[in-house]
Design goal:
Blueprint (H helix, E strand, L loop, with lengths): L31 E5 L2 H8 L4 E7 L5 E7 L2 E7 L4 H14 L4 E11 L9 E3 L4 E6 L15 E7 L3 H15 L3 E3 L1 E5 L20 H8 L3 E5 L2 H9 L5 E12 L8 H20 L6
Parallel strand pairs: 1-4, 1-5, 5-12, 6-9, 7-10, 10-11
Antiparallel strand pairs: 2-3, 3-4, 5-11, 6-12, 7-8
Length: 283
């Protein structure tokens, strides 16, 4: 019998040296990574690469494309959704790549500010806060007097990387680029203030509270804080920044068209790929 993996108290790998959830081993992931949520966005970015030497979908649902952009090795990873998936991606990537790394997320998001209209791209130059639901508040007893949602303080991107990505995105998308703070939430529904009469959520004030505390909040999604937080805790080895295509504006309820989403993924994706490829790696 073969052990399913080794190092259960560290970062587990199987007998081939593959990290358990990404399914990759050393040599299969580039030190420059663009992460996206959806497989279709990853495929659109893959199609913009000069060459692709590895395509792998892990049994846990991560898809990785490794190839070259302008002669430089780059990987695109489709993470799926949520902070734990980003955590798998960043930690397991770090485990199989030596030396400095760069991560840029090109996600999708809800627009919180009026200018974050569908089809704009919010670049999180000020970073991201994190909104999480506090289960104690719903349990009665002592926890009943605690807030139902908490907002963690902003974590910043790498300023040089963010400025580099900003130049590329502005050259590609002009005034469709909006710079502003992101709010990552621990769910799509309750912690983003969406109404669902089937559950006790107490969330009607979540988005107004984010905006009262952070008037520069522009976007809301689920993964960017996890990336920026891990990069900040990577002992100086990972530089990261985040951007997201506005899929819908939460004030006006305007929603992007499929055509505009795909066009923005292609144009923004090309800009991000070129920016990642042309950013120097250093510790
Ligand atoms: C929800 O529809 C998903 O879209 C956003 C959210 O963060 C969440 O993951 O990002 P992605 O399109 O990159 O997945």
């Amino acid at each position: 019998a073969t052990a399913y993996y080794s190092d259960t108290n560290g970062v587990p790998k199987d007998g081939d040296g593959r990290v358990t959830h990404l399914g990759l081993r050393a040599g299969e992931l580039a030190p420059r990574v663009v992460s996206v949520g959806s497989l279709s966005r990853a495929q659109r970015l893959r199609d913009l690469m000069d060459s692709v030497s590895l395509s792998l979908t892990s049994p846990r649902g991560f898809t990785t494309y490794t190839g070259t952009v302008a002669g430089v090795a780059v990987s695109v990873v489709a993470t799926g959704m949520g902070a734990p998936m980003m955590d798998f991606c960043v930690r397991e990537a770090r485990q199989i790549v030596d030396g400095p790394m760069v991560f840029v997320r090109l996600g999708s998001c809800g627009g919180l500010s009026p200018e974050a209209t569908p089809g704009t791209v919010v670049l999180n130059t000020p970073g991201s806060v994190y909104v999480s639901r506090n289960p104690d508040a719903f349990a009665g007893g002592e926890g009943g007097s605690t807030p139902a949602y908490t907002i963690a303080r902003p974590v910043a991107p790498d300023p040089r990387l963010c400025a580099h990505v900003c130049v590329a995105l502005r050259a590609a998308l002009g005034d469709r680029v909006v710079e502003g703070l992101n709010a990552s939430a621990d769910s799509f529904y309750a912690a983003q203030g969406r109404c669902d009469e089937h559950f006790d959520d107490r969330n009607s004030t979540v988005v107004p509270e984010v905006l009262a505390k952070h008037p520069d909040a522009c976007s809301m999604e689920m993964e960017s804080f996890a990336l920026l937080h891990l990069a900040a805790c990577s002992l100086g080895t990972i530089r990261a920044c985040t951007a997201a295509i506005v899929a819908a504006n939460r004030h006006s309820a305007a929603v992007i068209t499929t055509e505009l989403l795909h066009e923005t993924e292609r144009v923004g994706g090309r800009a991000v790929l070129n920016a990642v490829a042309s950013f120097g790696l250093y510790l």
